[in-house]
Design brief:
By secondary structure, this protein is of the alpha/beta class. It has 13 helices and 15 strands.
C-alpha cells in the first residue's frame, strides 16, 4: 500500500436524545474521521472514537487529534505498510493512545480489504452474514426505561442494556423485570461500585441478568476476580481490557466470564481479533461494544462482530437510533433484530460527502512524499 495522502475531518453532531451515565451526559458527539488514500486513488476510512471529555478513558478528541497529526501520521510517513499489522508494530513505540492508533489502523484495514477486493468481514475471518443487535436503554427513570424497551422490542432488538449505579440499580431492575420477566437484560455499571458494595451487587443476582459490565474500577482486574467468585451473575469487563495481555490476565485470574471488545479501546482490529481468538479458544464469551459512533466505526464493528466468537448481541444499533442523518451511505439499519454484514470490498459503506461537510468543524490534509 503506497499511501500518498491522509484526510482528517473532526465532526460534531447532536444526538437525537441525550446519552446518560452516572459519569456524565452526552448531548453532542465529536469524532475524527480519517481517510487514507493510496497511489491508485483507493481510499480506506477509519474513525477516532474518543469522547470530547475523558469520562470513558483518558483520551479525548483533542488528545487524539494531537497524537494523530503530530506523532502517528509522521510515523506512517517513515514506513512501508504492506498489511495492517505493520501499522501495529510501527505504533508500538507510542504508549497507549489506543483510540488515536485505532482510527488510522482501521482505515488501513479498509484500504487493505478494498485493494484485495474482499469485504472487511471476510478478510479478518468473519463467518456470519448478519449479526444480532442490542441496544442501550435510558436509565434516568423507570417509566422512560419501560417505554424504550417496548419500542425497541417492536424494532426487534435482541439484547437490552441499562446503566446502573448505587443510587439507581435494584429498584430499576426490579421494575423492568416486573414488566419483562424474560427480557435478555444486562446492567452496565461503568465502575460505579467498590468491593464495599459486594452485598448490593450480590442482590442483583435476583434478576437473572446476562451480565454486570465493569462494576469496579476502570483499571482493575484483581478486585474483579474476588467479586466474580461471590456472584452468580457473570461479570463482563470493558474499560479494564485495553490489550491482549489484559484479556489474558483477566481470564487466567477468573476476573470475568465475558469480555466486551471495542476495537477503538484496544488499538484497532488486529488487537481486537487477537483478544477474540484467545477468548474463543478459552470458551470466554465476547461481544462488540459501542461508543456512540458515527457510521464508519459502526461499519467496522459489524465486520468485527461477524467473527465466530461473538455470541452475544453487540451495541450495533441502527444509525437512526442516534442521528437524524449519519455520515455514511447506506446507513446502518436493523431488520428483525439483525444487521446485515456487507459483502462488498472494504467496510461496505461510502461517505456521505455532503453530510460530512455539514458536520465538519476542522479539516486537515497530509501529503506523503
Amino acid at each position: 500500500m503506497n499511501i500518498t495522502e491522509i484526510r482528517l475531518n473532526v465532526v460534531s453532531m447532536p444526538l437525537k436524545s441525550p446519552f446518560y451515565t452516572h459519569l456524565g451526559t452526552v448531548t453532542d458527539r465529536e469524532g475524527i474521521i480519517l481517510e487514507v488514500i493510496d497511489s491508485d486513488g483507493v481510499s480506506g476510512f477509519g474513525e477516532g472514537v474518543a469522547f470530547s471529555t475523558p469520562w470513558y478513558t483518558e483520551e479525548t478528541v483533542k488528545t487524539s487529534l494531537h497524537m494523530i497529526t503530530d506523532v502517528l501520521i509522521p510515523l506512517l510517513m517513515t514506513a512501508a505498510i504492506k498489511q495492517p499489522e505493520d501499522t501495529v508494530r510501527l505504533f508500538q513505540s507510542v504508549k497507549r493512545n489506543n483510540m488515536a492508533k485505532a482510527g488510522l489502523e482501521m482505515a488501513i484495514w479498509d484500504l487493505y480489504a478494498k485493494r484485495n477486493s474482499q469485504s472487511l468481514s471476510s478478510i479478518i475471518g468473519g463467518t456470519r452474514g448478519k449479526v444480532a443487535s442490542g441496544v442501550v436503554i435510558a436509565a434516568d427513570s423507570p417509566n422512560r426505561s419501560l417505554k424504550q424497551i417496548e419500542t425497541y422490542l417492536e424494532e426487534g432488538y435482541q439484547r437490552f442494556k441499562v446503566k446502573i449505579n448505587p443510587q439507581m440499580d435494584y429498584s430499576l431492575l426490579a421494575e423492568i423485570r416486573r414488566h419483562f420477566p424474560e427480557l435478555p437484560l444486562m446492567a452496565d455499571a461503568n465502575s460505579a461500585y467498590t468491593l464495599t458494595d459486594i452485598n448490593r451487587l450480590k442482590s442483583l443476582d435476583d434478576f437473572n441478568l446476562l451480565m454486570i459490565e465493569q462494576p469496579l474500577a476502570s483499571d482493575d482486574i484483581i478486585e474483579h476476580s474476588f467479586l466474580q467468585k461471590e456472584l452468580n451473575t457473570s461479570i463482563c469487563l470493558d474499560e479494564s481490557i485495553v490489550s491482549f495481555e489484559d484479556a489474558k490476565n483477566a481470564v487466567e485470574l477468573g476476573s470475568c466470564k465475558i469480555i466486551n471488545i471495542k476495537a477503538g479501546r484496544v488499538g484497532g482490529l488486529f488487537e481486537a481479533k487477537r483478544i477474540h481468538d484467545y477468548c474463543h479458544d478459552k470458551g470466554i464469551e465476547v461481544w462488540c461494544g459501542g461508543m456512540i459512533e458515527f457510521g464508519i466505526s459502526r461499519a467496522h464493528n459489524i465486520a468485527l462482530a461477524s467473527l465466530p466468537g461473538f455470541t452475544i448481541p453487540g451495541d450495533i444499533s441502527a444509525s437512526s437510533r442516534f442521528w437524524e442523518e449519519d455520515i455514511i451511505t447506506p446507513e446502518v439499519t436493523i431488520e428483525n433484530g439483525y444487521v446485515a454484514v456487507p459483502d462488498t470490498p472494504g467496510i461496505g459503506v461510502a461517505i456521505n460527502k455532503k453530510r460530512l461537510q455539514e458536520t465538519t468543524v476542522l479539516e486537515k490534509v497530509f501529503k506523503f512524499q
